[in-house]
Fold this sequence. Notes:
Blueprint lengths: L1 H21 L1 E6 L7 H12 L1 E3 L7 E4 L2 H6 L9 E4 L5 E8 L5 E10 L2 E3 L6 H6 L1 H17 L4 H21 L25 H4 L1 E6 L1
Antiparallel strand pairs: 1-8, 2-7, 3-6, 4-5, 5-6
Amino acid sequence: xxxxxxxxxxxxxxxxxxxxxxQKKILVGIIGGKADSDIMAIAHAHEYGATIKPKKGRYLAxxxxxxxxxxxxxxxxxxLRFVNAEGGRLLMVRDKKKRGGKTESxxxxxxxxxxxxxxxxxxxxxxxxxxxxxxxxVTGAMVKMLEGTITPTAATESIGAQAAQLVQGFIDQNKVxxxxxxxxxxxxxxxYESGAHIRDRIAYEVVIK
Length: 209
């Protein structure tokens, strides 16, 4: 009888923790409330792609030099002029004096009506590429929970923390590639870009369904 009572007790305990676990959902990514709207917009553009159009005026100004990038807007300069370049491109250039008194034109900005960013998934792609690792994380936490060594809360916290680390590791390994035939180069610099630091904003949150 003692053995049956123990089995029944274990069964009821496992049933209770499974029911509690069923009510929990683990969110991993750039969590709302923990990131401002600009970071959320940048992360969404990376994950799903986006077409960016000017909010004001006719063109977007794409910086072509470090100086232009640091300045941010063409309005920071008072010596720019428009130039129609090959292929119908419209540039904003400035004349700079070189050694010997020679003056040369330098293209500072490319003006475009829109920019389409290719999908560069770093969350979905991370989990797709690391299904085995994620499965092991979930299985390990569930086994400990059913054994009674950790609570459902501890299990979800463990899964969430390790899942977030998987995404960060995916970025660290430079595996975030544009989903586009136009470029094969793997880049992740904008996931670290000053002011954004998307990689460092990846977090998790456990919520009740």
